[in-house]
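REQUEST FORM: STRUCTURE PREDICTION
Request ID: SP-0412
Submitted by: Lab K.M.
Chain count: 1
Length (residues): 268
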Amino acid sequence: GLAVVFVFLLSSLFGAVCVKGDLIIGTENSSLQAIHQAENYIKEMVAMGFGVSYANDTLNEAKHQFKIGNYIGAETLARYVKDIKDSAIRVDKLIDRIEKRIYEAEAKGINVSSAKTLFSSGIEEFENERYVNAEDLLNQAENKVEEAEAEFYMKMVMEKSEFDWTGFLKANLIVILLLGAGFFITVFVGYREMRIRRIKKSIIKLENEKKSLKLLMKEAQEAYFKYKTMGKSEYERAMEIYQLRLAKIKKEVPVLLKLLGDLKLKKF
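STATUS: Completed
RESULT:
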């Protein structure tokens, strides 16, 4: 995205070598090491089930700059891959945390519809690897949950201080029991829907990971057989990692699909 273009333009302005603290970057050797490290970061992202299109595009541009001798540009772009990986991990954890908060708030009867809208938009941005936008939307969603909770509890305090709860409970016991049963059903359905969403998300991540693995396998094959830029031991090790992970995905997806089908059929 724009951040990659920005760091690349900066790198082009500073010449062939620059100093970062006590570390000299922008040499042929340091750039090559950064590119290899970026490849490892992408493999880690694949193993965690993240999309890697953005990271791969950044790495490919780094390799191009390396080939034309712009070592500082190559290294700057290669190092940026770690930022992409860190952003993906951070946003993924944020999604889990906010989803839990939304579920807990709904279980208490708190209206968090505006937070859910922002949350859905944040997930969409995350799946499209636009992590800055995703993080911003998710933080907005969390703020909305906090506002809804504060309003809900303030209203409870005000009502409790003004209302004769003992008399109300005695006069409306049956209605309260019915409402309680309805609330329990709502919570049960909400929990089921949350599990369905989580399973769907897991399936999508696994399918994306499978596509990324196949792409990485193709690139490794081209590097070894066509371009001769990868050694035999490195190629065999990479292919073994990819094939093992693919085999695991092929086992996991059917299990998740069955669980998803069972949840959809499950009635209260």
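NOTES: Residues 2-10, 12-17 have pLDDT under 50 and may be disordered.
Reviewed by: T.R.
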